[in-house]
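Dear colleague,

Thank you for sharing your sequence with our group. We've completed the structure prediction you requested, and as agreed, I am returning the results in plain text so they can be pasted directly into your records. Please verify that the sequence below matches your submission; if there's any discrepancy, let me know and we will rerun it promptly.
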Amino acid sequence: MLENLLISMENHNSLFENEIRKLNVPVCDIFVKDGKIVPAKFEKTDKKIGTSDVAEVNKEFPKTVKETENKILKGISGSVNVSGKRVAVLFSGGPAAGGHNVIIGLKKVLGDGNILFGVKNGPKGLLEGTLFEIKEEDVKRILNTGGFDFLGSDRTKIKSEEQYEAVRKTVKDYQLNGIVVVGGDDSNTNAAVLAELLYDMGVQVIGVPKTIDGDLQIGDILPISFGFDTATKIYSELVGNILQDTPSSRKYWHFIKLMGRSASHVALEVALQTRPAIALISEEVEAKKMSLGDIVKSICDVILTRASKGINHGVIVIPEGLIEFVPEMKSLIAELNDIMGHYGEDISKMFTFEEKKDFIYKKLNADSAKLMASLPDEFEKMLLLDRDAHGNLQVSQIPTEKLLITMVEERINEVKNHLDEIAYLNFDEKGLERIKKFKFATNNHFFGYEGRCGAPSLFDAAYTLNLGLCAGSLILDGKTGYIASVTDFDKGGSVLALPLTGLLNIEKRHGKNEMVIKKGLVEVDSPAFKFFEKRRKDWAEKDLFTSPGPRQLWGPVSKQLPITVALNRGYSSLEFNLGKETKVF
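Please find the predicted structure tokens below.
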């Protein structure tokens, strides 16, 4: 009966989910022997990595620096027969598609002779000791599915002596030999701290690079973090749908903010996938020292140019963290972060928002206070939100797209009454008449959570499985203080391990200097940005958009790489190759 079928599809048993569990994904050759998945060995290369703060890092992390020498490890085929290891894995930070396959890779490579524990609710669970043994029936159920729902995650930053002692207790209670931290730059900074902290206890700590933002990347040795491909494919489908709608209704400008807190990799990738009329890139705004007024003017120029041709619609892609890259806003936010970091306890005791606002205003310099007061009330209030656990402004809650709509609308109305102000655009009389009649109608969107936990793309499913195999192999090979990496996506995949201490540098957080992994931003001289820069004028002047459609797990486009990765790494095609498709179970 149909009703019985429908009931049987509940609890992650849709027709789609049942099929993707059967999907074989590509596995790098060093992890396959006689058709079976096996661990790899690692050898130290001569290539060292380190930031400009290497002396300070070496002083703070003497044990792991001595162990790793800050040298990159290369994965090689070899037999590693180790048993009795007790390893815990945790997710940290925001979710990302493919996380479950990291667990699959770990469980598979550790084999029956070792025990894998899952930590519930991220770093907080490590502190509380909420661990459970992961069985084979568990991993079979989550293969190729979901984001982080099997374990859950949180954003707790482990940095106090009390927290360190809680970690030690959990390690002792469960007799752990290893911990795998799956997370972004801040989470892998935590992994570096744990590797140093637990070194004398003989506990290995390995990181795995996750973030949909794509800002945990280091050139050829760590091309991208997992989750980025799935998220950008989902966002590109949504943006592509809206781009298809705009010439259908012919009357709306859609302002679309995309998740990506500190870097514009997501916005750039989606722009390359869909070709909207306008895509703002935060790093370019900062490089050109563009003010809010400059940004608004550049948007209005495109909108009015299209209006002069009778094109009264379009799409604008906006990176989530844009305001932090506008020079005057960056200075204001940095000052607010310092004040809220230094006076956080005092501010937390204040009862009303007005009381907090008055207190903060008195601490701002004159220019910052003036800029703050010029902003719309809603926007001003958002800037004073509590910071996250890492001291960051929660930019996802800042309605940047609405601020831009308000400012753009004001300028367009002003220009329509004073057409001499756009004489530099050289419109003819017919074009100016069209502008006079133009009605600026808008819609705003924020695509964020929609992309974080979709079923992983084939690339992310394969990438995460191989990262899990890499992390597990590092544990079996006795390594600690590394982050797993897979590179050479176009030629079968190469497996590396990067010393976490080699990635650390000093940044100001909560008003004081802290060791952190530096975020990888969009480079304005990169091949991906240069291609975007070369094509965007044509995209602005006429509809050249594309609709990439939904992500594919089977068929001719299922093996498509992120365009930014392919361009920046100099690949000759968009098709990835991470080895032969291999049956996991």
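Summary note from our side: The chain is about 45% helix and 15% strand.

Kind regards,
the structure core
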